[in-house]
């Protein structure tokens, strides 16, 4: 009798394990979206050097901004953006999400990482301009169905400013790929503007 | 492999290449923010057009064989626009919209209050935008001018790079509300930088007996080296040193000068200071 009871308990236990493992992940709550990989090059920062703590903050906050933007574009939720965006960037991307929502369209971005370069860091530390080279896979959706997808190396001009406890993105503007001629010109006239 | 097979293979590759080329849309190569574009299509029948861009998401029916018109107010934001055509043929292409010409400036000036005659104390950064708030990456000369009424202005012109121009200037010699102006093209933005007097230049005091027997010390009007009156409220310290020790009295500048009473003494050395600046010494009493 005791042996039978034992076997019964083992069987019930195994059944519970199988059922629990077989349940969809969504029942356990969605895992929070992961922040994309962001690398930051501060070697060309001018006229002010970037402090170590600022460097860490920029990497953290720019990654969060992209995470938010991707979620916002996929779920058509403009309300998410204000946590990491301000000013013109908030207007630009808020307007994008609203336009998508109105047309029943959305975008899903598979983010393969960002390489950021500091182009300008103001003397008073109130603004930092960066260039981002991002590896992205963009899926274009109509009512949730993928109609086209594109893998791209996208270049962005970024302006970030410090807020109360984080840096916010004020400008996030994609720019056309550099032609070889432009690249040569830029490297020739690569000195910073401004004077002391 | 026979010649016939090779020929067939070459034909197949050529056909595939031609078909692949036909799948691309002839998208614009020099679009500008706020300006309409036209994209030619081939074939016949209807299709669905999708445009995904910054600030835009369009879905509408189009007739193949007719050019697709995208209006300027749907292309206000610079950046990548992806056009997808689904119907008789499934084609897609991307094009870039460049910022329009300079229309606006955003100008950050620091600090809002600065001592006069301070080297490199005033900084300004100007950001160049078009009418649709796109950062204009093309180079533009930006003029910075710092001026206070009744004194010559300091100005400098810097070219913007990637939409930003910045400058670092010395504060002017004269105290007052300085106008710090950044201008480029027809756009101009003004900020006010309050220039205050610097540290006192020379402090001179005189001493006389007070009615109650104390020593009354009083400065001449206190000014910085450019002649600006040092602001009221600035602390001035009067010191008396005699055989009994040292007495110190702090007084604030009021209406341009400071005064205090020091304890009576028959033989004392009186001195005055404000910050790091020392004034004259007076020998009081003695034989």
Query: Approximately what portion of the residues of chain A adopt beta-strand conformation?
Result: 25-35%
* Euclidean distance between termini CA atoms of chain A: 93 Å
Beta percentage of chain B is: over 45%
CATH superfamily of the largest domain in chain B: Immunoglobulins
List the domain count of chain B as a whole number. 3
CATH architecture of the largest domain in chain B: Sandwich
Fold and architecture overview:
The complex is a heterodimer of chains A (196) and B (287). By secondary structure, chain A is of the alpha+beta class. Chain A has a single domain, classed as Nuclear Transport Factor 2, Chain: A (Roll). Chain A contains four helices and five strands, in the order αβααββββα. Chain A has helices at residues 2-22, 52-75, 87-103, 180-188; strands at residues 38-41, 105-121, 128-142, 145-162, 167-175. Chain A has a five-stranded mixed sheet. In chain A, a hairpin with a 6-residue loop joins strand 2 (105-121) and strand 3. Chain A is extended. Chain B is mainly beta. Chain B has three domains: 22-98, Immunoglobulin-like, CATH 2.60.40; 104-196, Immunoglobulin-like; 205-285, Sandwich (Immunoglobulin-like), CATH 2.60.40.10. Chain B is built from one helix and 22 strands. Chain B has one helix at 3-22, and strands spanning 31-32, 37-39, 46-53, 56-63, 68-70, 79-87, 91-98, 104-110, 113-115, 122-129, 141-147, 154-159, 164-169, 176-184, 187-196, 205-209, 215-219, 235-242, 245-252, 259-262, 267-274, 277-285. A five-stranded mixed sheet of chain B has the order 1-7-6-3-4, with no helix packed on it. The termini of chain B are far apart. Residues 15-23 of chain B have low confidence and may be disordered. Chain A binds chain B through residues 47, 88, 91-93, 95-96, 99-100, 102-105, 107, 119-120, 122-124, 126-127, 129, 131, 138, 140, 142, 147-148, 150, 152, 154, 157, 159, 171, 173-176, 192-196, and chain B through 50, 52-59, 77-80, 82, 84, 86, 92, 94, 96, 98, 108, 110-111, 120, 123, 125, 127, 129, 133-135, 137, 156, 158-168.
């Amino acid at each position: 009798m005791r042996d039978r009871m034992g076997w019964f308990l083992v069987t019930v236990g195994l059944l519970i394990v199988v059922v629990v493992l077989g349940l969809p992940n969504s029942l356990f709550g969605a895992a929070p979206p992961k922040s994309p990989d962001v690398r930051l090059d501060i070697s060309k920062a001018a006229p002010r050097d970037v402090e170590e703590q600022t460097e860490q903050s920029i990497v953290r906050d720019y990654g969060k901004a992209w995470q938010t933007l991707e979620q916002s574009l996929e779920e058509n939720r403009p309300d998410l953006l204000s946590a990491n965006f301000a000013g013109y960037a908030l207007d630009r991307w808020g307007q994008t999400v609203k336009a998508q929502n109105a047309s029943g369209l959305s975008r899903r971005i598979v983010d393969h990482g960002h390489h950021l370069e500091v182009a300008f860091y103001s003397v008073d530390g109130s603004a930092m301009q960066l260039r981002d080279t991002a590896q992205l896979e963009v899926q274009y959706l109509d009512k949730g169905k993928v109609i086209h997808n594109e893998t791209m190396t996208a270049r962005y001009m970024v302006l970030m400013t410090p807020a109360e406890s984080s840096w916010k993105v004020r400008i996030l503007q994609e720019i056309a790929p550099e032609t070889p001629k432009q690249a040569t010109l830029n490297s020739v006239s690569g000195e910073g503007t401004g004077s002391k | 492999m026979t010649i016939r097979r090779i020929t067939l293979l070459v034909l197949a590759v050529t056909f595939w290449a031609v078909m692949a080329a036909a799948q691309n849309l002839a998208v614009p190569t020099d679009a500008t923010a706020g300006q309409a574009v036209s994209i030619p299509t081939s074939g016949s029948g209807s299709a669905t057009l999708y445009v995904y861009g910054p600030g835009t998401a369009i879905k509408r029916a189009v007739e193949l064989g007719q050019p697709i018109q995208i209006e300027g107010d749907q292309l206000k934001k610079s950046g990548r626009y992806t056009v997808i055509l689904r119907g008789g043929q499934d084609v897609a292409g991307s094009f870039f919209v460049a910022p329009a010409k300079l229309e606006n400036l955003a100008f950050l000036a620091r600090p809002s209050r600065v001592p006069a005659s301070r080297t490199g104390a005033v900084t300004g950064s100007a950001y160049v935008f078009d009418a649709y708030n796109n950062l204009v990456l093309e180079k533009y000369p930006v003029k910075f001018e710092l001026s206070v009424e009744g004194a010559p202005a300091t100005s400098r012109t810097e070219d913007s790079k990637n939409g930003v121009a910045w400058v670092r200037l010395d504060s002017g010699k004269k105290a007052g509300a300085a106008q710090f102006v950044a201008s480029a093209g027809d756009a101009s933005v003004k900020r006010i930088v309050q220039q205050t007097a610097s540290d006192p230049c020379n402090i001179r005091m005189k001493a006389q007996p007070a009615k109650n027997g104390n020593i009354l010390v009083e400065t001449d009007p206190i000014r910085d080296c450019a002649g600006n009156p040092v602001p009221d409220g600035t602390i001035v310290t009067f010191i008396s040193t005699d055989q009994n020790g040292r007495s110190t009295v702090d007084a604030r500048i009021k209406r341009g000068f400071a005064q205090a009473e020091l304890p009576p003494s028959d033989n004392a050395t009186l001195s005055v200071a404000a910050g790091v600046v020392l004034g004259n010494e007076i020998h009081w009493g003695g034989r």
